[in-house]
Design a protein that fits this description.
The protein is an alpha+beta fold. It has 2 domains: 2-12 and 22-104, no CATH class; 107-150 and 174-210, no CATH class. The chain is 26% helix and 41% strand. It contains 5 helices and 11 strands, in the order αββααββαββαβββββ. The chain has helices at residues 2-11, 52-67, 72-79, 107-118, 151-160; strands at 21-32, 35-47, 84-91, 96-104, 121-129, 132-140, 166-170, 174-179, 181-184, 189-192, 202-210. Strands 3-4-2-1-7-10-9 form a 7-stranded mixed β-sheet. Strands 5-6-11-8 form a 4-stranded antiparallel β-sheet, with helices on one face. α3 (72-79) crosses α5. The radius of gyration is 18 Å and the shape is globular. The termini are far apart. The model is unreliable at 1-19 (pLDDT under 50).
Length: 217
């Protein structure tokens, strides 16, 4: 999984910068029959610029952007085509804490948007058969191409670089099969498997879950 993240970072044209906001990030994707709710909590947000004046300026810019719902995470969600984006302050004093939530139609549309903006070729399927739903991704990592400079793509990096901090949670049912993920909490949660790697340049991911309230005809 880390290899996939690295390729996406290269595809997005991410370059190291001197001085940036330091923070702890936790992502949760809630899967429900009505769609996907992606929540990102940024805590302990503070600048590591070299001087107090620079730190204050950078943190002030973040505060204003988050207050307007225009900080990097929110803009990345918008770039991915979220149906809605909501920003909630958890702590307005330094170090800041902000929760940003977005809604997407389903996992297929979300995965396709990520591959599209990373310029990685691939196929995504979301198939429901009876009470079971299967989500699969097949990405050609060798197809990753450098992208032109684009502020929105840089902001999308805020999400991509922290994929390993994410977890997928079912609001109903339980996970029953996975490839590239580890199933925990009695099948209600799945987290990226750090040992997952590509084969011959292709990365395949799979998640399958069952709706326990559903009854086969």
């Amino acid at each position: 999984m880390k290899a996939f993240v690295s390729v996406l970072m290269v595809a997005l044209g991410v370059l190291p910068i001197s001085g940036c906001l330091r923070k702890e990030v936790r992502q949760t994707l809630y899967l429900s029959p009505s769609g996907v709710a992606w929540t990102v909590v940024e805590s302990q947000v503070r600048s590591d610029e070299g001087t107090p004046v620079e730190r204050i300026a950078e943190e002030h810019d973040y505060f204003l952007a988050a207050s307007a719902g225009a900080h990097p995470i929110a803009r990345a969600f918008q770039h991915l085509g979220a149906q809605s984006v909501q920003t909630t302050w958890l702590r307005r004093e330094r170090p800041y804490s902000v929760a940003t939530a977005a809604r997407f139609a389903d996992m297929r549309e979300l995965a396709l948007a990520i591959l599209r903006d990373a310029r990685v070729a691939g196929d995504v399927a979301l198939v429901r058969t009876g009470c079971r739903t299967k989500f699969t991704v097949r990405a050609d990592l060798s197809s990753a191409r450098a992208t032109p400079d684009d502020a929105a793509l840089d902001e999308l990096n805020e999400l991509i670089t922290d994929l390993d901090t994410s977890r997928l949670v079912l609001t109903e049912g339980r996970f029953v099969a996975a490839d590239g993920f580890q199933i925990t909490d009695e099948g209600t949660r799945a987290t990226p498997d750090p040992a997952k790697t590509a084969t011959d340049g292709f990365l395949t991911l799979l998640l399958e879950w069952v709706d326990e309230s559903c009854h086969e005809p």
